[in-house]
Amino acid sequence: MEEEFEISLFPIPGAVSFPETIVPLHVFEPRYRLLIKEAVTKPRRIGVCHTKRVISPAKHHDSTEQALRSNQATYEPVTVFGAGFGQILDITDDGRLLVEIEMDARYEIISEVQTLPYKIVRCRRFDDIEVEEDDIIALRESVTARLIRMSTELSDELAEVLRSDAWKELSDEDFSFKIFQIVRLEPEMLQQVLEMRTPRERLRVLNNCL
Q1: How large is the C-alpha radius of gyration of the chain?
Q2: Cβ pair 118, 35 in contact under 8 A
Q3: How far is CA 106 from CA 21, 67, 123, 171, in A?
Q4: CA–CA gap between residue 116 and residue 72 (Å, rounded)
Q5: pLDDT for position 74
Q6: Statement: residue 73 has pLDDT above 90
Q7: Percent share of the chain, pLDDT over 70
Q8: Which ranges of the chain does DSSP label H, i.e. alpha helix?
Q9: Is the alpha carbon torsion for 100, 20, 189, 153 positive or negative?
Q10: Which fold has domain 5-125?
């Protein structure tokens, strides 16, 4: 039987989170501060995900203090997203949380477990399918070469990272996820990439965009 997981959802417009990446969050809404604290204590994975639409818009607040006491807009989440376990790095004097979440995999929603004060969903892993990918080496080399050419105009440090043994030794799957920490596309395109089931598909999209 396929393993199922309960995941706390943190929907943020434009936030597409890939496995093998670390997502920093600055959390101030009461419901999401509660989400983080409960997920860290339990522990339960946290899914940071893009959104489909606004369910209820945010109310205007005249001060940070008011914003810290009330929740903002409510969104309908996408059904496939990255998730992982989080840690609280710091809590500000006014209660905001500085958090990092290590995304371990992609997950797909099966059903909703809890709606309020925040969503908890039951999920299954959304893994790649195994296919023969003869051109994957050439795609990795092409993407790397193009990014190195681009990065030398902006950051010698980034070029060194791309040339490093650590990057060369990544599996095709990990490479095709971690590379999106370096290259950012429009959220809708990133969501499409997130839902692709092979490294070849993901790298072909990126290679065509560079």
Answers
A1: 19
A2: yes
A3: 11, 31, 10, 16
A4: 14
A5: 87
A6: no
A7: 92
A8: 30-41, 64-69, 136-151, 156-163, 165-168, 172-178, 187-194, 199-209
A9: positive
A10: 2.30.130
Average pLDDT, the chain: 90
Quote the pTM value.
0.89
Residues of the chain with CATH 2.30.130.40: 5-125
Handedness of CA 24, 51, 108, 28 (dihedral sign): positive
Instruction: Label each residue of 102-115 as H, E or C.
Output: EEEEEEEEEEEEEC
User: Which of 64, 4, 16, 21 has its CA nearest to residue 177?
Assistant: 21
5-51 pLDDT, tens digit per residue, is 999 999 999 999 999 889 999 999 999 999 999 999 999 999 999 99
* Position 69, amino acid: R
Which residue in this structure is represented by tokens 């990057």? Answer: 167
CB 101 within 8 A of CB 46: yes
**Residue-level pLDDT at 62:** 52
Calpha distance 170→168 (Å, rounded):
6
Query: What is the per-residue pLDDT across 96-125, written as a single tens digit (0 to 9) for each?
Result: 999 999 999 999 999 999 999 999 999 999
